[in-house]
Amino acid sequence: MKIFNKIVVCLATLAIFPVMYFLNIVRAVVSISEDSSLYTILSKLAEKTASSAMEITFSVKEIFKYISDGSVSFGGMTFDLSKIPAELLVGKNWAIAAGVLIAVALLIAIVIIGCALFTEAYKTITALGAGGAVCCFAALRCFVRFAAPYMSGSIDIGELLANAFVGESNNLLGSIGTSILKGAISVDSFTLGNAVTLSLVFFIGVALWELAYVVTLPEKKSVKVKK
């Protein structure tokens, strides 16, 4: 039973790493206002009526693929990260905090695997599983705080993108881009993806499994030595 317990804990904890790497770490749903010039242009360019909502997801694997040498390559275009408007990074400390919490959760996962393989510290593993779950949950909440300005519409994504990648509104090209994009894009959902949520479930599963195992362990009977 001890070996079976070690196998279950190790496999459940190891599963967190491919989940974090391959599944979506960030998920956003972006809508284009049907009354905007951007929607009209896209509808004329598209073979079918353009959809007003679009889901955008990124995994860690995809982020590494898109980001290299301080630039982002996406959709055949390359953008310099240094040109990202400061307004888009409002509350970035919340996003950094979420990233740090996820990193701590992964470190906890490594410690759990070590404890499961080389020790019989069942209560420690239970506590570590709970700690990993708390880190994942806290990361989700921190990212909610980071995403709040985008969700509320206090940050106009379209106008900022026009200024960043087309030009300032005081020149001809910039004014055209601003007139097309300003108020055209809204963020309906902006959260950490199922990679973090599923990792939270795995940590809770490890903690509950190990707690159940500890509870069902037979009590050690003290041996009385006869004089």
Topology:
Elements: H1 2-14, H2 16-22, E1 24-32, H3 37-45, E2 53-59, H4 60-66, E3 67-68, E4 71-74, E5 77-80, H5 92-118, H6 122-152, H7 157-165, H8 172-181, E6 185-192, H9 194-215
Antiparallel strand pairs: 1-2, 1-6, 3-4, 4-5
Structure description:
The chain is of the alpha+beta class and 227 residues long. It is 59% helix and 15% strand. It has nine helices and six strands. The strands form two sheets. It has a three-stranded antiparallel sheet with strand order 2-1-6. Helix 2 runs antiparallel to helix 9 and helix 5 packs antiparallel against helix 6. The protein starts with a helix and ends in a 12-residue tail after the last helix. The mean pLDDT is 79.
Highlighted features:
single chain, about 230 residues, alpha+beta, three-stranded antiparallel beta sheet, about 60% helix
